[in-house]
Amino acid sequence: MKVLLLNGSPHEKGCTYTALAEAAAALEECGVETEILWLGRDVTIGCTGCGACRKQGKCVHDDAVNLAAEKARSCDGLIAGSPVHYASASGQITCALDRLFYSAGSDLRFKPGAAVVSARRGGATAALDQLNKYFTINQMPIVSSRYWNMVHGNTPDEVRRDEEGMAVMRTLGRNMAWLLKSIEAGRAAGLELPAQEPPVRTNFIR
Protein backbone atom coordinates (compact mmCIF):
# COMPACT_ATOMS: atom_id res chain seq x y z
CA MET A 1 0.00 0.00 0.00
CA LYS A 2 1.18 3.51 -0.80
CA VAL A 3 -0.05 7.02 -0.10
CA LEU A 4 0.89 9.97 -2.29
CA LEU A 5 1.22 13.29 -0.46
CA LEU A 6 1.15 16.47 -2.54
CA ASN A 7 2.98 19.51 -1.20
CA GLY A 8 1.27 22.56 -2.67
CA SER A 9 3.49 25.12 -0.95
CA PRO A 10 6.02 27.29 -2.80
CA HIS A 11 8.50 26.24 -0.09
CA GLU A 12 9.74 22.69 -0.50
CA LYS A 13 10.60 22.09 3.17
CA GLY A 14 8.38 24.67 4.87
CA CYS A 15 5.40 24.46 7.20
CA THR A 16 3.20 22.40 4.86
CA TYR A 17 5.97 19.86 4.37
CA THR A 18 6.47 19.64 8.13
CA ALA A 19 2.81 18.70 8.59
CA LEU A 20 2.82 16.23 5.69
CA ALA A 21 6.04 14.61 6.92
CA GLU A 22 4.49 13.99 10.34
CA ALA A 23 1.49 12.25 8.74
CA ALA A 24 3.80 10.31 6.42
CA ALA A 25 5.90 9.09 9.35
CA ALA A 26 2.79 7.75 11.08
CA LEU A 27 1.74 5.97 7.88
CA GLU A 28 5.18 4.41 7.52
CA GLU A 29 5.04 3.19 11.13
CA CYS A 30 1.80 1.43 10.19
CA GLY A 31 3.46 -0.30 7.26
CA VAL A 32 2.19 2.02 4.49
CA GLU A 33 4.68 3.36 1.98
CA THR A 34 4.60 7.12 1.33
CA GLU A 35 5.90 9.62 -1.18
CA ILE A 36 5.81 13.39 -0.77
CA LEU A 37 5.69 15.12 -4.15
CA TRP A 38 6.50 18.83 -4.17
CA LEU A 39 4.65 20.60 -6.96
CA GLY A 40 7.47 23.12 -7.27
CA ARG A 41 7.86 26.87 -7.13
CA ASP A 42 7.09 27.62 -10.78
CA VAL A 43 3.60 28.87 -11.51
CA THR A 44 1.28 25.98 -12.32
CA ILE A 45 -1.14 26.86 -15.09
CA GLY A 46 -4.80 26.30 -14.33
CA CYS A 47 -7.14 24.11 -16.33
CA THR A 48 -7.95 25.72 -19.67
CA GLY A 49 -10.94 23.46 -20.33
CA CYS A 50 -9.57 22.25 -23.65
CA GLY A 51 -10.67 18.66 -23.03
CA ALA A 52 -7.53 17.21 -24.60
CA CYS A 53 -6.84 15.06 -21.52
CA ARG A 54 -10.02 13.11 -22.25
CA LYS A 55 -8.58 12.11 -25.61
CA GLN A 56 -4.89 11.58 -24.88
CA GLY A 57 -5.05 10.52 -21.22
CA LYS A 58 -2.96 13.36 -19.83
CA CYS A 59 -2.93 17.14 -19.66
CA VAL A 60 -1.41 19.06 -22.56
CA HIS A 61 0.52 21.18 -20.04
CA ASP A 62 3.35 18.81 -19.21
CA ASP A 63 4.46 19.70 -15.69
CA ALA A 64 4.27 18.32 -12.15
CA VAL A 65 0.53 17.69 -12.56
CA ASN A 66 1.15 14.96 -15.13
CA LEU A 67 3.75 13.46 -12.81
CA ALA A 68 1.18 13.47 -9.99
CA ALA A 69 -1.38 11.88 -12.31
CA GLU A 70 1.06 9.12 -13.19
CA LYS A 71 1.75 8.42 -9.52
CA ALA A 72 -1.99 8.56 -8.72
CA ARG A 73 -2.56 5.44 -10.80
CA SER A 74 -0.49 3.27 -8.47
CA CYS A 75 -1.20 4.95 -5.14
CA ASP A 76 -3.87 3.71 -2.73
CA GLY A 77 -4.56 7.04 -1.00
CA LEU A 78 -3.95 10.75 -1.47
CA ILE A 79 -3.16 13.59 0.94
CA ALA A 80 -3.15 17.12 -0.44
CA GLY A 81 -1.30 19.73 1.61
CA SER A 82 -1.40 23.49 1.27
CA PRO A 83 -0.53 26.67 3.07
CA VAL A 84 -3.37 29.12 3.64
CA HIS A 85 -3.31 32.09 1.27
CA TYR A 86 -6.09 34.64 1.79
CA ALA A 87 -8.25 32.06 3.63
CA SER A 88 -7.91 29.67 0.68
CA ALA A 89 -5.65 26.92 -0.52
CA SER A 90 -2.62 28.08 -2.47
CA GLY A 91 -3.00 28.91 -6.15
CA GLN A 92 -0.44 26.19 -6.85
CA ILE A 93 -2.42 23.35 -5.29
CA THR A 94 -5.74 24.69 -6.59
CA CYS A 95 -4.54 24.77 -10.20
CA ALA A 96 -2.88 21.37 -9.79
CA LEU A 97 -5.92 19.65 -8.30
CA ASP A 98 -8.28 21.20 -10.86
CA ARG A 99 -6.25 19.56 -13.61
CA LEU A 100 -5.40 16.37 -11.73
CA PHE A 101 -9.00 15.53 -10.95
CA TYR A 102 -10.22 16.47 -14.41
CA SER A 103 -7.57 14.44 -16.24
CA ALA A 104 -7.00 11.56 -13.78
CA GLY A 105 -9.95 11.56 -11.41
CA SER A 106 -10.95 8.05 -12.44
CA ASP A 107 -7.59 6.76 -11.15
CA LEU A 108 -8.35 8.20 -7.71
CA ARG A 109 -12.01 7.27 -7.40
CA PHE A 110 -12.84 5.31 -4.20
CA LYS A 111 -9.32 5.84 -2.86
CA PRO A 112 -9.18 7.53 0.56
CA GLY A 113 -8.26 11.20 0.46
CA ALA A 114 -7.36 13.82 3.03
CA ALA A 115 -6.44 17.48 3.05
CA VAL A 116 -3.88 19.16 5.29
CA VAL A 117 -3.51 22.92 5.69
CA SER A 118 -0.93 25.08 7.38
CA ALA A 119 -1.74 28.57 8.61
CA ARG A 120 0.05 31.25 10.54
CA ARG A 121 -3.21 32.18 12.23
CA GLY A 122 -6.59 32.19 10.39
CA GLY A 123 -8.39 30.94 7.30
CA ALA A 124 -7.52 27.29 7.83
CA THR A 125 -11.06 25.89 7.96
CA ALA A 126 -12.03 27.69 4.75
CA ALA A 127 -9.00 26.29 2.94
CA LEU A 128 -9.66 22.82 4.33
CA ASP A 129 -13.26 22.95 3.15
CA GLN A 130 -12.11 23.95 -0.33
CA LEU A 131 -9.70 21.04 -0.63
CA ASN A 132 -12.15 18.44 0.68
CA LYS A 133 -14.53 19.22 -2.18
CA TYR A 134 -12.17 17.55 -4.63
CA PHE A 135 -12.61 14.27 -2.77
CA THR A 136 -16.38 14.47 -2.36
CA ILE A 137 -17.02 15.09 -6.06
CA ASN A 138 -14.85 12.09 -6.91
CA GLN A 139 -16.43 9.50 -4.56
CA MET A 140 -13.34 9.34 -2.37
CA PRO A 141 -13.75 8.51 1.34
CA ILE A 142 -12.42 11.47 3.34
CA VAL A 143 -10.04 10.56 6.14
CA SER A 144 -10.42 12.59 9.30
CA SER A 145 -8.36 12.99 12.43
CA ARG A 146 -9.32 13.88 16.00
CA TYR A 147 -9.64 17.54 14.95
CA TRP A 148 -9.49 19.48 11.70
CA ASN A 149 -6.38 18.55 9.71
CA MET A 150 -4.43 21.75 10.29
CA VAL A 151 -1.27 23.04 11.89
CA HIS A 152 -0.34 26.55 12.97
CA GLY A 153 2.96 28.39 12.80
CA ASN A 154 4.96 30.73 10.61
CA THR A 155 8.08 28.55 10.43
CA PRO A 156 8.68 24.78 10.45
CA ASP A 157 10.01 25.09 14.00
CA GLU A 158 6.82 26.84 15.14
CA VAL A 159 4.74 24.13 13.47
CA ARG A 160 6.70 21.44 15.29
CA ARG A 161 5.91 23.27 18.55
CA ASP A 162 2.19 23.08 17.71
CA GLU A 163 1.84 19.91 19.75
CA GLU A 164 -1.86 19.51 19.07
CA GLY A 165 -1.39 20.02 15.35
CA MET A 166 1.40 17.45 15.22
CA ALA A 167 -0.79 14.96 17.10
CA VAL A 168 -3.57 15.61 14.59
CA MET A 169 -1.16 14.78 11.74
CA ARG A 170 -0.06 11.54 13.39
CA THR A 171 -3.65 10.53 14.04
CA LEU A 172 -4.50 11.31 10.43
CA GLY A 173 -1.73 9.00 9.25
CA ARG A 174 -2.87 6.18 11.52
CA ASN A 175 -6.51 6.65 10.52
CA MET A 176 -5.64 6.52 6.84
CA ALA A 177 -3.55 3.39 7.35
CA TRP A 178 -6.48 1.76 9.19
CA LEU A 179 -8.91 2.65 6.41
CA LEU A 180 -6.55 1.40 3.70
CA LYS A 181 -6.14 -1.91 5.51
CA SER A 182 -9.91 -2.15 6.02
CA ILE A 183 -10.47 -1.62 2.29
CA GLU A 184 -7.85 -4.26 1.50
CA ALA A 185 -9.54 -6.70 3.90
CA GLY A 186 -12.91 -6.03 2.30
CA ARG A 187 -11.49 -6.60 -1.15
CA ALA A 188 -9.92 -9.88 -0.01
CA ALA A 189 -13.31 -10.94 1.37
CA GLY A 190 -14.93 -10.33 -2.01
CA LEU A 191 -16.58 -7.00 -1.26
CA GLU A 192 -17.19 -5.19 -4.53
CA LEU A 193 -17.30 -1.49 -5.25
CA PRO A 194 -20.76 0.14 -5.19
CA ALA A 195 -22.84 -0.14 -8.35
CA GLN A 196 -22.56 2.96 -10.51
CA GLU A 197 -25.42 4.70 -12.31
CA PRO A 198 -24.80 6.26 -15.72
CA PRO A 199 -23.87 9.93 -15.19
CA VAL A 200 -26.67 12.45 -15.65
CA ARG A 201 -25.97 16.15 -16.25
CA THR A 202 -28.84 18.51 -15.59
CA ASN A 203 -28.29 22.15 -16.53
CA PHE A 204 -30.30 24.72 -14.60
CA ILE A 205 -31.14 26.87 -17.63
CA ARG A 206 -33.10 25.31 -20.46
How would you summarize what this structure contains?
44% of the residues lie in helices and 16% in strands. The protein has 206 residues and is an alpha/beta fold.
Features:
206 residues; alpha/beta; globular
Strand residue percentage = 15-25%
Quaternary structure state of the chains depicted: single chain
Structural class category: alpha/beta
Largest sheet at a glance?
6 strands, mixed
How many H/I helices?
7
Task: Give the terminus-to-terminus CA distance.
Answer: 46 Å
Q: Give helix and strand order, one letter per element, not per position.
A: EHEHHEEHEHEHH
Mean pLDDT: 96
List segments where confidence is low: pLDDT < 50 over at least 5 consecutive residues: none
Amount of helix: 40-55%
Q: Please, could you describe this protein's structure?
A:
This protein is of the alpha/beta class. Helices cover 44% and strands 16% of the residues. It has seven helices and six strands. Strands 1, 2, 3, 4, 5 and 6 form a six-stranded mixed sheet that branches. Strand 5, helix 5 and strand 6 form a beta-alpha-beta unit. Helix 1 packs across helix 7 and helix 3 crosses helix 4. The longest helix has 26 residues. The N and C termini lie far apart (46 Å). The mean pLDDT is 96.
